[in-house]
Amino acid sequence: MKDQVDGILQQWKQIKPELDCSSMGVVGRLRRVDNQWKQQLDTVFKKQEMSSIEFDILATLRRSQIPLTPTELYKTLMLSSGAMSTRIEMLVKRGLIERVYSEQDRRSCKVMLTDQGITIIDLALHAHLENMDNLLKPLNNDEKNQLAALLKKLLLAQQ
């Protein structure tokens, strides 16, 4: 069975037979899978009336189980401080998180989930996990573990 990337690789082989384009096959497939998965993940988040960034913020607060500063959040999620401030404000207005101000310095605050935020993220998490399981359905458990290990190896090499 051939995919679109096979066609691209075949074209390069005809034009530049002296080049090894195998890495193009790996990276090209990763990028295509990423694009497809982003769309499918965003579909689930939209059903929960949130963006992927909002899901990440709420999920980070949920798994941390303690209030976090906006700085801790944006460093964990690799967002700019401005983007984080905007998202926090939107989530506060929706009643999903609240700010807890420092008693020593009112300019300093942490954010935490409200009861409504906990309910929403727990629902979204279940839908997200089901969606991810569906995305990985073509792979058996050994293949999932192997893929996870290989991707981890690539990520660690970039640090």
Task: List the defining traits of the structure above.
mainly alpha; elongated; 159 residues; 2 strands
What is the fold's blueprint, element by element?
Layout: H1 4-15, H2 22-47, H3 52-64, H4 70-77, H5 81-93, E1 97-101, E2 109-113, H6 115-135, H7 141-157
Antiparallel strand pairs: 1-2
Helix pairs in contact: 1-2, 2-6, 3-6, 4-5
Characterise the protein shown here:
- 69% of the residues lie in helices and 6% in strands.
- By secondary structure, the chain is mainly alpha-helical.
- It folds into two domains: 1-47; 49-157, Winged helix-like DNA-binding domain superfamily/Winged helix DNA-binding domain (Arc Repressor Mutant, subunit A), CATH 1.10.10.10.
- Strands 1-2 form a two-stranded antiparallel sheet.
- Strand 1 and strand 2 form a beta hairpin.
- Helix 1 (4-15) runs antiparallel to helix 2 (22-47), helix 2 (22-47) packs antiparallel against helix 6 (115-135) and helix 3 packs across helix 6.
- It starts with a helix and ends with a helix.
- The model has no long low-confidence stretch (mean pLDDT 92).
